[in-house]
User: Fold this.
Amino acid sequence: MEVPLESLKEYIRFSSVSTDSAHAQGMRGARAYAKKLLEQLGFKVEVVETDLHPILLAERHGSPDWPHVVLYGHYDVQPADPFSLWTDKPFEPTVRGGRLYGRGAADNKGPTIVHMAALARVLEKNPGLRLNITYVIEGEEEIGSPSMSTFFDKYAERLAKADFMLVSDTGIPNTEQIVITTALRGLVDLEIKLRGPKSDLHSGIHGGAVYNPLQALMEICASLHNPDGSVNVPGFYDDVVPVFDWERHELKCYPETLESYRQLLDVSAFYPANGLSPLEAVRFGPTLEFNGIGGGYQGEGSKTVIPSEAFAKITCRLVANQDPVKVQKQIIDVVHSRCPEGISLSIREGGIAEAYLVVPPDRPNTPVDQPPALASAFRAADVAIADQFGRVPIYLREGGSIPVIADFKKRAGLDAIMIGLFTPLDNLHAPDESFSLELMDNAIFAFERIFESIAKS
Amino acid sequence: MEVPLESLKEYIRFSSVSTDSAHAQGMRGARAYAKKLLEQLGFKVEVVETDLHPILLAERHGSPDWPHVVLYGHYDVQPADPFSLWTDKPFEPTVRGGRLYGRGAADNKGPTIVHMAALARVLEKNPGLRLNITYVIEGEEEIGSPSMSTFFDKYAERLAKADFMLVSDTGIPNTEQIVITTALRGLVDLEIKLRGPKSDLHSGIHGGAVYNPLQALMEICASLHNPDGSVNVPGFYDDVVPVFDWERHELKCYPETLESYRQLLDVSAFYPANGLSPLEAVRFGPTLEFNGIGGGYQGEGSKTVIPSEAFAKITCRLVANQDPVKVQKQIIDVVHSRCPEGISLSIREGGIAEAYLVVPPDRPNTPVDQPPALASAFRAADVAIADQFGRVPIYLREGGSIPVIADFKKRAGLDAIMIGLFTPLDNLHAPDESFSLELMDNAIFAFERIFESIAKS
Assistant:
């Protein structure tokens, strides 16, 4: 493998925007390039066709007695528009101030190159490395991994032979402090649609006789939270896994203060999050969030109508052990029960995703049946990161969702060690996405150690 | 004057859409035609220039001892689109099934022609009719009469010499039952704009830490009504004029049942209007109505953001004696007091209009200082309508607003006798607007009697 920076530049040049068919060539290019790199590393690569973008399934298998790790990444990227906000062109990677700029530099092409470069060094030193590796690189992560379900139908059994996963698709506070993500939140999506009169009515002639669907919508939605910020849906918190003392301790090591976080968000005050601090709330608490509302007149000024229809788009972030099917039903039931007479209600049930939680070894709540290979790998990662970065990693739950991680657990029984490599400066999903070259170097060294350690376990 | 139907057809052919400068020629044509008709009736017509559409001010003045009536109408019409929903072209009037179809047929060209045709007959019989008439026909009623304020600055003193107004710009339940409208609701317009974080945030990474402006908006707006349907704004009902027993009695004569009204609105249940029946609520009660709300993602499906901004457009319909300035401030104050920390609030203060109320003579609450000429004219209208239509008129407050009527009262001290001539079948402001030819005939006869009676008072 050539110099990692050059490989990453080459990888970025393929505009692999999965959501936009205009980038079909970029998708093909990125896929072919990733396949070539994997083959250079000695993997046997299968291109698994899907309804949309094929998945790369690469294998380096020796003896079944060797440890077996699954690496996961994605070769697709977010759209780059608005292009005018980029300093340089998004698919023409450039280095400035110790960072490589380009769409996908951090999410997820940089971390993928880190993994591959580390593997290249390890295998160069020891071509007979006693480590089975299954490398899955999909092309639909940025659009919700719709093809992974079918992929699991066919390959889950094969994947289940592995011991655990290694993933780098989560965040860290800065280039000096690595975070190992121990949980991802789940998701529930639904949309409330209300209808009052069959068409907009004159608010003078009929105002007072008709339940305004905007009013009904706002009354229903306003009822979904309590003044303390908790979600007012019966049963919502029933299955929530509590926060453990060691997790609060880890959070205290996280280099973010309430004031620095408030400034980052640029708000004058935080949400009263049900007794959690804001830094806790985004990691340990479930939410019910309104993503969009609408109805009635949308233009300038005023229009004196009683509108006919209103909608609210709602998503929940769920924490470990909450059942998204159950929560979705709880919300639907409560919305039905709070809908006033004279208003008809329909609900679009959107996608759901389970939360994911893995507990590192040697914690009070570590499952007693945690596989030894997983525990060893956690310890190996801890040591390698502490040595390379001069600081032990922080073990923290994260607020975002990567549904495919829970699916790997559910479908193939694999837990994930998620070693974050994104910083807030990386501008994920935004213009001027970049990846720190210093972090890249350090991470390659750390992963080199990690691969060597887990091969010996 | 030629046959009224032909005059009305001619008047409709001018596409006098005041809101759209593309119809400047139609505006000019309608104005010139109305001026010509007034001149044929012997009026001295002044074309009063305004910033937008000139106002016709026509006078037929004899002795200052004669009774003096102000007639009001408007030569502008609503836009006709969507054109595809019209059976025939909106500005090519056609007669079908006893109705004349065309934009403006009912609002307000038909009623204007009724008044003029009645005057023509009266003056033909009695050219020396002892009646001073000031005829005001404006061209901006459909856009909120913005130029009338300046008009009053110049002409209020002259108008104040009249005794009362006669207006036909309100509704009736059907062509057999005339309603004399005794009140119009006032209006308060405002828009709440909330801002949370400075830009949309990722609902996973930051969900739980930030007050979602959509949630804040819905909580504030939901707080503006009580479960009984009343408006939950301190002081809102302080100055509300009560409903009088005779008004409830009049409403009982109104040919609409709860069931027929429910079917008309096509709702499964009415709004719980603070103890008023739906038919009372739209006439006797003030409202606070949401006309439009929005914020966050508006497309299909879902987007997991915490939006940055939200808005709600609110208008109130006020009843007599409520001060719109005071009510607007009450709402603004309450919205400010209910806005949570972390959310910044701005409010657009839109237009306001006072409600209008006139009490016919011989009622328990008739003002003791009601001018005799007004009382006589009410009695004359009652008799003429009862004779011509075979039924006494119903005296009822109406839910809509015609701000200029309250302005005539405030600026020139003139009360209005509002004799409705629109039916629900007339499709005001909608495709296939029409005017009943039978009603037109009967109304001309009735107004002929009314003009003759008031000239003798």
Remarks:
- Chain A touches chain B through 78 residues (CB under 8 Å).
- The first helix of chain A runs from residue 4 to 13.
- The mean pLDDT of chain A is 96.
